[in-house]
């Protein structure tokens, strides 16, 4: 769950700020959204944390809506270059069910160099008999929690 500002990266200024912040981060949480039936990734989101504890969230939309026929953002080539640089940086990355996200990122030629942590695997290693989906894990571990996909689950 985001604990800092969320920046939608549509403009060159937004993209540059995201790149600078993420490249200074000591840990990056990454999550993608997909349309697997249509075979494409719709959004790539990052949360970076600095040594100071400051957290910011960045959303890179790969399409103008969930429908790929809506077209791509004008700055998509720049977004992809930034995602490639951030992913290759060696900064530790954390996921929830990382193999799913990593499959899609490799498919888009955006491999991650330092897949360090996975909350699903860590939770599962402690409580293998419990569900490991993000909604359940978050409801157990977070005090102030609302699952953002609640209307779809």
Plain-language structure description:
The structure is a single chain. With 153 residues, the protein is α/β, with parallel strands linked by helices. 33% of the residues lie in helices and 24% in strands. It contains 5 helices and 6 strands, in the order βαβββαβαβαα. The protein has helices at residues 12-23, 76-87, 98-107, 119-126, 134-141; strands at 6-8, 27-35, 40-49, 55-61, 93-95, 115-118. A 6-stranded mixed β-sheet has the order 1-4-3-2-5-6. α1 (12-23) runs parallel beside α2. It is globular, with a radius of gyration of 16 Å. 24% of the residues are buried.
Task: Write a brief caption for the model.
By secondary structure, this protein is α/β, with parallel strands linked by helices. Helices cover 33% and strands 24% of the residues.
What share of the residues lie within helices? 25-40%
Strand order of the largest sheet: 1-4-3-2-5-6
Q: How many DSSP-defined strands?
A: 6
Q: Would you identify the regions where 5 or more consecutive residues have pLDDT less than 50?
A: none
Mean pLDDT: 89
Q: What's the shape?
A: globular
Distance between the termini: 16 Å
- Report the β-strand fraction as a percent range: 15-25%
């Amino acid at each position: 769950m985001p604990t800092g500002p969320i920046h939608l990266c549509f403009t060159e200024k937004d993209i540059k700020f995201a790149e600078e912040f993420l490249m200074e981060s000591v840990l990056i949480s990454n999550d993608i959204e997909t349309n697997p039936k249509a075979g494409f990734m719709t959004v790539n989101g990052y949360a970076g944390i600095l040594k100071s504890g400051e957290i910011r969230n960045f959303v890179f939309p790969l399409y103008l809506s969930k429908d790929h026929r809506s077209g791509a953002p004008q700055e998509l080539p720049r977004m992809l270059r930034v995602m490639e640089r951030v992913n290759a940086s060696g900064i530790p990355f954390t996921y929830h069910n990382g193999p799913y996200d990593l499959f899609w990122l490799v498919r888009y030629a955006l491999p991650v160099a330092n897949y360090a942590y996975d909350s699903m695997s860590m939770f599962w290693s402690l409580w293998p008999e419990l569900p490991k989906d993000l909604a359940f894990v978050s409801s157990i571990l977070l005090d102030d929690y609302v699952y953002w996909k609640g209307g779809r689950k």
